[in-house]
Amino acid sequence: MAFQSLILLILLTSLPASFALTDEKLSAYQVLQQYDFPIGILPEGVTGYELDQETGEFKAYLDGTCTFPIESYDLRYKSTISGVISKDKITKLKGVSVKVLFFWVNIAEVTRDGDELSFSVGIASASFPLENFYECPKCGCGLDCLNSNYLDGFVASV
């Protein structure tokens, strides 16, 4: 009996990593990368997510509403972000908005075309280099946290 257990142990430890017997869930950032998106389209602090791999429907969760500046824009993420993800495309996006002049406008779609990401707010869109999204922004201060006066970018959900 001990010999059989030893053989089983040797077989299990020699299996490739893809056959590992773990139930470890990928992070939301790792899932983005599987769909060919950079991690920086989500801010730091995602606490969990749900993903239907057949339909691509997803929900990502933050501790609260998250706002921060990026270049000349202000972005706001609600505590729940949802949409449909597929390779190089996120559609039906809800929970992410950008401030244009004095108004918050919902970002409805994100697409990747080579080394650019396009963000659509309906009839208008803007494209940015992919390299702008290699790093996750922080709530409150975005990517410029060392030079920021923000204390905390999370706002408690009501």
Automatic annotation (TrEMBL):
InterPro entries: At5g01610-like, DUF538. Transmembrane segments: none annotated. It comes from the Eukaryota. Keywords: Signal. Residues 1-20 form the signal peptide. Pfam families: DUF538. This is DUF538 domain-containing protein. It comes from Corchorus capsularis.
